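Late entry, evening session. Most of the bench is empty. Finally got around to the prediction I had been postponing all week. Sequence below, unchanged from the version circulated by S.P.
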Amino acid sequence: MATFDNAEIKELLKDFQDILPNNLPNELPPYRTYQHEIVEEPGSKPTFRAPFRLSPTELTDMKKQIEYLLPKGLIRPSTSPYGALVLFTPKPDGSLRMCIDYRALNKQTIKNKYPIPRINNLLDQLRGATIFSKLDLRSGYWQIRMADNSIHKTAFRTRYGSYEYLVMPSGLTNAPATFQAEMNHILRPLLDECMVVYLDDILIYSRDMKQHVEHLRRAFEILRRE
């Protein structure tokens, strides 16, 4: 949120505290208009790789990640013939980010051509606005369910067993398209009136503070329904 001191904004945030959680709930998100389906080229075969050798630090981090995802129902044990590798990349703060290497699966996935907005076009919508608020959805991709017929294709192999995602993981070639489509569907009433959306980043813009409070309220009401 923007860092300005305004009593109405503070009261608004208080009213909508239920949609501003500090942590993800321990349950799957509801089925929405879009689920993520992985459609492969005809004749494709399951892709799999044996797990890489990982350092003790990486193994410790992997175990923590799995123990975080399992109780929330975001992943489950898998017997799928698919099996992607787990990789780790460093974060700016020195910690590790666990990544699933879906490159082999992506190579044989039919690409979704849903349009991702061009930044220049989004900026054109902001002319005349003087006040802005940016909303960043917490773990946005995990708010999209995997289609039942594609869950097994998300499987990844670890030293501790194979697991598959029940929500949309990052790294899948069509994940941005699915997410943008869902965001556009949910937030369509406000698009180009007072809001631009680029994947999981929402920018609300207004001419003055009174209008901005109303725009934020409308956005929060939509997000609460979803």
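Two things to note before I forget:
Strands lie at 75-77, 85-90, 96-101, 131-136, 156-158, 161-165, 195-198, 201-206.
The chain has one domain: 7-225.
Will write this up properly tomorrow.
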